[in-house]
Amino acid sequence: MTKINQKDINDAVWKACDTFRGSIDPSVYKDYVLTMLFLKYLSDVHDDKMDGYLKKYNNDIDRAKRSMQHERFVVPEHSHFKFLYENRNEANIGELINIALTDLEEANRDKLYSEDGAGIFQNIDFNNSKLGEPKDKNQRLKTLLIDFNSEKLDLRPSHVGGADIIGGAYEFLIANFASDAGKKAGEFYTPNEVSALLAKLTQSKPGSRICDPTCGSGSLLIKAGTEVGSDNFSLYGQEANGSTWALAVMNMFLHGFDNATIRWGDTIRNPKLKEGDALMKFDTVVANPPFSLDKWGKVEDKDGDKTTVSYDPESDKYNRFWRGVPPKSKGDWAFISHMIETLNEHGKAGVVVPHGVLFRGSSEGKIRKKTVEENLLEAVIGLPANLFFGTGIPAAIMVFNKAKASEHVLFIDASQHFESAKNQNKLRENDIEHIVSAYREFAKGKMKPGIVEEKYSYVATFNEIEENDFNLNIPRYVDTFEEEAEVDITAVQTEIEGLERELFKVQQEINQYLTQLMK
Fold first, then answer.
1. Is residue 176 part of a domain?
2. What is the number of domains present in the chain?
3. Is residue 383 domain-shared with residue 463, that is, in the same domain?
4. Buried b vs exposed e over 88-101: b needs ≥16 C-beta within 10 Å?
5. Is 376 found in the same domain as 500?
6. Is residue 451 domain-shared with residue 375, that is, in the same domain?
7. What is the pLDDT of residues 483-514, one digit of tens each?
8. Which of 75, 270, 432, 518, CA to CA, is 20 to 30 A from 395?
9. What does residue 135 show for φ and ψ, rounded to 5 degrees?
């Protein structure tokens, strides 16, 4: 049997999206396609394992079924993809898919439910009117099932060539949905190159606990884990959006990270990653939080509204904002403060921020000053514009380290180092390596203050930053000014005189032609 490769699966799952394109927004139909991929994967793995047990027990079905009860997932018969495919022509196919997903959750409560009792499929409804009128909806679902029944989407481990192809297909879909979804994409996806850069800057050692407190679909968290170089690490994440949380849970399973802990909830108002009553501590924390989130903090109870829980950052019970409370209209430093407070004594954090975080004043300025005075800030890296889906503004990466090798801070201006594309700029491998190699050399504590690389990197002392009133705006440290070439006035004047003579000559010729025409 010919094994299918990454491109085969990518092409097949992207073709399955044709069922929805043009009639439904990508931010909506992504959930249906990704959920179907997950269901197909579980069904095919189930069949592969069942075949193995039948072979082992000489086709003794009862023994094989008993053994299947101890596998990663239990797949009830009517939750199996094959059952849904065989019933694809039923008038209530949307309802049948919903029942299949609900019962799959119930059969695997320990894996597919949150600690609050929410199932990962609770926000997905295959019987939803968003999929069109009943006739159109049924046709779309039928076509989707047919597409996923393709030979190229046989996801049995014995048929898939190479490791992590299924996870790769999931990432491929998420990236393409993010591209199509525009502004809505920033909620759930960090571009692959930025994830890779953050993971390398904060590279975790074997045995590390790694966390993303705003994990989206989990892509950045997975990248940070794979950067360890071994299987000896644990992943933790929290996501506020229910649909996106479900994507992250599925993403972990599709990559084989069955033990990852992904919580659903607001990280600032209701952090879920705790040990007892205290926040859990981590070796590595990475995040791409929402830029300058408005109304991130204080919430008051409303009479009769049990869904609203009061919260005031001024009296945060985890004392995350002792350096200061960020402004209510900009939550950037709220997320950074949370990340720093969840680092252990030698932990490192990498976070994507808008440039305003580096220089805005008031309470943000006070918090920034304290982090520098504590010698937590290790590096500030300016990125190119238009890297992120949903915003063209340039961003920066801040690296915080509880175990810095010196009191200095590295500034890198990588804003002009990228591959230009029509819709989205991209960091190339050599751009990432340039940044990472400079950072790693600095992290050894051997770089002297001053210019490291002209127009690219600079090591600033605490005193320099203090003299700049703790303003971290990169141009204050990395001089990228390009002097204009001196103008040779004499040469320019000579060129102008030559052009005037040529113009006079041409004008005379035109006049001669006009005179001849008028005769």
1. no
2. 3
3. yes
4. beeeebbebbbbbb
5. no
6. yes
7. 566 777 888 888 888 888 888 888 888 888 77
8. 270
9. -65, -45
Contact 295, 216 (CB under 8 A): no
Looking up residue 86, the CATH number of its domain turns out to be 1.20.1260.30
One domain, residues 276 and 158: no
Strands 409-413 and 457-460: antiparallel
- Residue located via tokens 């249906």: 32
CA distances from 393 to 174, 186, 350, 355, 439 (A): 22, 13, 19, 9, 23
* Structure-derived torsion over alpha carbons of residues 4, 7, 10, 16, reported in degrees to the nearest 10: -70
Q: How far is CA 90 from the centre of its chain?
A: 38
Backbone region of residue 443 per phi and psi (left: phi > 0; alpha: psi in -120 to 50; beta: other values): alpha
Compute how many other C-beta atoms are within 10 angstroms of the C-beta atom of residue 334: 25
Give the pair of three-digit tokens for residue 71: 């596998």
Distance, C-alpha 220 to centroid of its chain: 5
Q: What is the dihedral of CA 380, 386, 389, 393, to 10 degrees?
A: 60
How buried is 365 (Cβ within 10 angstroms: 0-12 exposed, 13-18 middle, 19+ buried)?
middle
What whole-number distance in Å separates Cα of residue 199 and Cα of residue 211?
11
Q: Which two tokens stand for residue 456?
A: 């690219």
At 39, the pLDDT band (50, 70, 90 cuts) reads: very high
Question: Which comes out higher in pLDDT, residue 483 or 249?
Answer: 249
Query: Are 322 and 447 within one domain?
Result: yes
Residue 178 domain-assigned?
no
Domain that holds residue 330: 210-476
Residues 466, 498, single domain; the answer is no
**Phi, psi (5° rounding) for residue 237?**
-150, 160
Q: For residues 180 and 26, what is the distance between their CA atoms, to the nearest angstrom?
A: 6
